[in-house]
Amino acid sequence: MPTSDTLERISHIRTRAQLFIIDELARRGIEDVVPSHGVVLAYLYRNKGPLPVTSLVLALRRPKSTITKTTDSLESGGYLSKTPNPGDGRSYLVELTPRGKEFYSVFMDISERLEERLFAGLSAEDRQTFSRLLRVLEENLD
User: Fold this and answer.
1) Pairing of β 51-52 and β 88-96
2) Which CATH number is 6-141 given?
3) Which InterPro entries has this protein been placed in (predicted)?
4) C-beta separation of 61 from 75 below 8 A
5) Residue 9 pLDDT exceeds 70
6) Cα gap 64→49, rounded to integer Å
7) N- or C-end of the chain: fewer Cβ atoms within 10 A?
């Protein structure tokens, strides 16, 4: 039986971070993006498309149904486009639209503000240690 509140704290931090993102988006009048979209947008910002949906599933380690739902929502909002994959008629390629590319500055601003708030009071060494420990925790679950 666990004796520490570590998992509860991790859950609380995640919830608070999501609320921070929701508030920041609302403050900017953006209502068609939610925190769960961030991981897909970040991947597309780093990896210029078009990319097959399967590459997002593998890289982000999310169920295909989750990635499909997220990309459908982002497509509806005009942030990305989906086109049939000419190399595989059963799949789609996704890439950022001009609106999705323009959203990058908002995405980065919110991310930087969250990171500043989250890590306030921690030294650079503490941040590096924390990042290393998170990698270990993540690997333990793989």
Assistant:
1) antiparallel
2) 1.10.10.10
3) HTH_MarR-typ, MarR/SlyA-like, Tscrpt_reg_MarR-type_CS, WH-like_DNA-bd_sf, WH_DNA-bd_sf
4) no
5) yes
6) 18
7) N
